[in-house]
Amino acid sequence: MTIIKQTDFIESIADALQFISYYHPEDFIKAMHEAWKREKAPAAKDAMLQILVNSRMCAEGKRPICQDTGIVTVFLKIGMQVSWNSELSVDEMVNEGVRRAYLHPDNVLRASILTEPAGARINTKDNTPAVIHMSVVPGNTVEVQIAAKGGGSENKAKLVMLNPSDSIVDWVLKTLPTMGAGWCPPGMLGIGIGGTAEKAALLAKESLMESIDIHELRERGAKNRIEELRLEIMDKVNQLGIGAQGLGGLTTVLDIKIKDYPTHAASLPVCMIPNCAATRHTHFTLDGTGPALQTAPDLSAWPNLVYTPADNAQRVNLDNVTKDDIKRWKPGEILLLSGKILTGRDAAHKRIVEILDKGEQLPVDLRGRFIYYVGPVDPVRDEVMGPAGPTTATRMDKFTEQILSQTGLFGMIGKAERGDTAIESIKKHQSAYLVAVGGSAYLVSKAIIGAKVLAFPEMGMEAIYEFEVKDMPVTVAVDSKGESVHKTGPGEWQRIAF
Question: d(Cα 79, Cα 140) in Å, to the nearest integer?
Answer without folding.
Answer: 5
